[in-house]
Amino acid sequence: MSLLSSSETRPRGLVSRILLWIWTRLFGSLINSVLTLILLWIIYKVVRSGLEWMVFDATVAPADIRQCIDNGGACWAFLQDKWRLILFGTFPYDLQWRPALALTVFAGLVIASCFPAVWSSLERRRWMAAIWLFGMGFVIVLMAGGLGFTEVEVRLWSGLPLTVMLAAVGMFSAFFLSIALALGRQSDLPAIRWICIGYIELIRGVPLISLLFMANIMLPLLLPSDVRVPNLLRAQVAFILFFAAYMAETVRGGLQALPQGQYAAAKALGLGYWGRMIHVILPQALRLVIPSMVNIFIGGFKDTSLVIVISMLDLLGTANSAKADPKWLGLFVEAYFFIAVIYLFVCASMSWYSRRLERRLRTGQERA
Amino acid sequence: MTRRGKVSNPIATRPPMALSDTLQRPKNSGGRPIWRRPWIRGLVWQALLVGAVVWTMLFLIGNVEENLPRSGLSVGFDFLGEPTRFEIGANYLGATARDPVWLSFLVGAFNTLRVSLMGILICTVLGFLVALARLSSNWLVSHTAFLWVETVRNIPLLLQMLFWYSLSTLLPLPGDAWQPIADVFFTNRGIYYPALVLEPAHWWVLAALAVAIAGAVLLMIAGRRHRDATGRSWPTGWLSLALILALPLLAWLVTGAGSEIERPALKGYNFRGGALVTPEFVAVVIALSVYQSGFAAETIRSGILGVKKGQWEAARSLGLPTRVIYARVVMPQALRIVVPPMTSQYLSLTKNSSLAVVIGYPELVRVTTAVTAETGRAIECMGIMMSVYLCLSLVTSAFMNWYNRRIAYVEK
Q1: How many CB pairs under 8 A join A and B?
Q2: To probe the interface with B, which of A5, A188, A218 has the most B CB atoms within 10 Å?
């Protein structure tokens, strides 16, 4: 193989280069050829039955469940009937353009922030902060109403906007809490260190679902009897407390990966503890952990689906309520397929971004 | 307050005079005002945090003491001895509604362990295969494996679990069960399959198996000693395989244990006889192992990639075949890299098995919520559940720390 790929024997023409690629990467040896053929056969089978289900045997509106069952394929009529319920849940039907616009604005802000160029100078950073503040204000007005828009109660928020909100607010708040926890865990002061270690290990030792149940079952016992905490807030707080512990460990990794010289140099400048941390240590440590942070974000986004155990209607919850409609009884694959595609798209994009960042970071380090 | 002022001072604008000033100041500066001495500040910060934690605790406990009498409840673990009053469903300990509550918790913990161990086993094997496929020089194989990893780990576990569980509802009723292999019946109540009728003599076979495994382990150790001492190896692999096969077989023949197999048969509306795997169990195990296999594959892959290139080259130049290079050179070293992250993945799989509560598999969280609903003892039940998970975590990490120390490089 090394002989073939060396530059002297590499063929010139496009066709022969393609043939060489096919030969070396697909059929090089007997085992490889057998594997390729078996896999090709499986892929053919999967793609064919997938196409049959999704296209050839599928049923589109107008149709009822009987026709769907007769055709045997996917029942897109069911989705065409339910997609707005799945996406926006109990949000008032006529106002559903508002969460749609809010999601678009939010997605635009996130995507724009993914380009390192927008954070490159102080002026640009100020602009970004202003745009974020303005954008989030707009999103809140769209979701909650006010300023001339009809008001919508928070308990009606559901579906994709709820999922995104739980994840975004949760991750954002958990991030700041996690920095405090990580610094506390690295602190020289024993009481602070041990409280932080205890918190982090306790939270990381139990499943998220138990925290959600605790927020649901135990909170009424733990708070004064006249205090009523809305369901959404409970779930949100449980989320923040849970992910902060995981992020804290990641941040700690960054703090430990930093050369000791940085700590010593910052100290030699005469900076106090907070000055050292804010101006010297954290900016470098946090940059190191961005890829792992993105991975925690992915986990957080997926784990928002757990709120269905305290009967909240996130994206998975609305899909479940769509499949409970007696008109379409027995259909669920289409609804699950629909939201799986949404989750897959969001998470795979984040995962792609994290891999890219990691590569950039690595090459950056090698160059330095 | 002075501290805050210091923070907002950008480094650049700090006058050089002040800098040299700080440097020249003696470390234990008696000249500083008392609130600026580091140890005083440390004490104050710690006292503040401890005070806040204690205050929060007292506040919560006070509320509980106020709230409990109002709802007619008390705190205590006496309810553990009372009858459960609900059916847990199929379980190996045979617990029923009349058995005490503590037995239900035991069943829950046992079921959690059962699905977790199954999941760990399958996800490791699957993850290993996918990792090897990801590293394959075959473009099609490596990209299919990549697609698998990205798909299974980017769809929420709960969604996957619900999907598999809902799929089981599409299976036929016991009346017209689907029978892909003789005497194995797929129905919407689970999978029925033939099972061995247990007799007391089977315990002897099991004991013989345990003895054989212990003997095999001892043989391995002795074999390694022998190899270290003489440089020659015994065929320990074959010997222990023979031991593990032969000893139970011998016990089976000697004790005259029966081999009567009971086949499931349709009686009325359901199957009788044989053994049953519930759809919940199948859904949980499939979802857990498929979901976690994506993470496991990436961990194993990075472990294999983490082995230095020189090791491969050295092994090749010795003329070792690829299979031996993997088994004797690469994997032992990759294992050192893989074990710590793999441990935390096994732990997270165990914690993730709690999602099974959603489809009604009777694991620990399910039992806890059911008992809480039945007895109203939220604090005690949550406490029991959380301590079980904490214990699992602590035991696993203790074991893995020991293992890590054992296999760690001995630097020379």
Answers
A1: 171
A2: A218
Instruction: Say yes or no for a CB contact (<8 Å) between A39 and B60.
Output: no
Average pLDDT over residues B301-312: 88
- Quickly count: other Cβ atoms within 10 Å of residue B274's Cβ: 18
Find out whether A3 and A9 touch, Cβ atoms under 8 Å: yes
Which candidate, A57, A19, A6, A15, places its Cα nearest to that of A334?
A57
CA–CA min distance A92, chain B (Å) = 26
Q: Report how far apart, in Å, the C-alpha atoms of A154 and of each of A145, A230, A254 are.
A: 10, 9, 38
Residues 120..179 of A with a Cβ closer than 8 Å to B: which?
none
Contact A210 B150 (CB under 8 A): no
The reply to whether A278 touches chain B by the CB within 8 Å rule is: yes
Q: What share of chain B is helix, strand, coil (3-state, %, to 5)?
A: 70, 5, 25
Q: Which residues of B touch A343 (CB under 8 A)?
A: 154-156, 159
What's the rounded Cα separation, in Å, for the pair B150 and A344?
Answer: 8
Asked if A11 is an interface residue toward chain B (Cβ–Cβ < 8 A), one would say: no
User: Is the pLDDT at B220 greater than 60, yes or no?
Assistant: yes
Q: Which residues of A touch B137 (CB under 8 A)?
A: 1, 25, 28, 32
**What pTM value is reported for the model?**
0.83
Enter the tokens of residue B268: 């009325």
Q: Which residues of A touch B162 (CB under 8 A)?
A: 316, 320, 336
User: What is the Cα–Cα distance from B408 to B179, expressed in whole angstroms?
Assistant: 50
CA distance B72 to B59: 20
Instruction: Please count the other Cβ atoms lying within 10 Å of the Cβ belonging to residue A95.
Output: 17
Q: Is A206 in contact with B390 (CB distance < 8 Å)?
A: yes
Check pLDDT > 80 for residue A201: yes
Chain B's closest residue to A341, CA to CA, is B155
Question: Can you tell me the mean pLDDT for A11-33?
Answer: 79
Instruction: For residue B396, give both structure tokens.
Output: 């696993």
Rounded Cα distance between B15 and B10, Å, is: 11
Q: Do A191 and B50 touch (CB under 8 A)?
A: yes
Comparing CB atoms, the residue among B140, B170, B389 nearest residue A39 is: B140
Element housing A296 (H / E): helix A290-303
Are the C-beta atoms of residues B362 and B106 closer than 8 Å to each other?
A: no
Q: Which of A144, A152, A160 is nearest to A89 (CA)?
A: A160
pLDDT digits (tens, 9 = 90+) for B12-27: 444 444 444 444 444 5
Strand partners, B196: B261
Contact call for residues A91 and A103 (beta carbons, < 8 A): no
User: Angle at Cα B351 formed by Cα B348 and Cα B354, nearest 5°?
Assistant: 145
Report the DSSP pairing between strands B275-277 and B270-272: unpaired
3 state DSSP class of A114: coil
Report residue B159 as tokens. Answer: 């969604």
Q: Rounded to a whole number, what is the distance in Å from the CA of A147 to chain B's nearest CA? A: 36
Q: What is the pLDDT of residues A307-357, one digit of tens each?
A: 998 888 889 999 988 888 888 887 888 889 999 999 999 999 999 988 888
Distance from CA of A268 to the nearest CA of B (A): 7
Length of chain B in terms of residues written: 412
What percent of chain A is helix, strand and coil (3-state, nearest 5)?
A: 80, 0, 20
Helical ranges in B14-155 per DSSP H: 16-24, 38-70, 101-134, 139-154
Task: Please give the structure tokens belonging to residue A115.
Answer: 């380009």
Q: Tokens 């036929």 correspond to what residue?
A: B172
What does the block give as tokens for B283? 């859904």
* Cα B108–chain centre separation: 15
In A236-265, the residues whose Cβ lies within 8 Å of chain B are none
| ipTM (interface pTM) | 0.88
Q: Do A272 and B382 touch (CB under 8 A)?
A: no
Longest Cα pair distance anywhere in chain B, in angstroms? 95
Mutation target vs B (from A22, A30, A210; most B CBs, 10 A cutoff)? A210
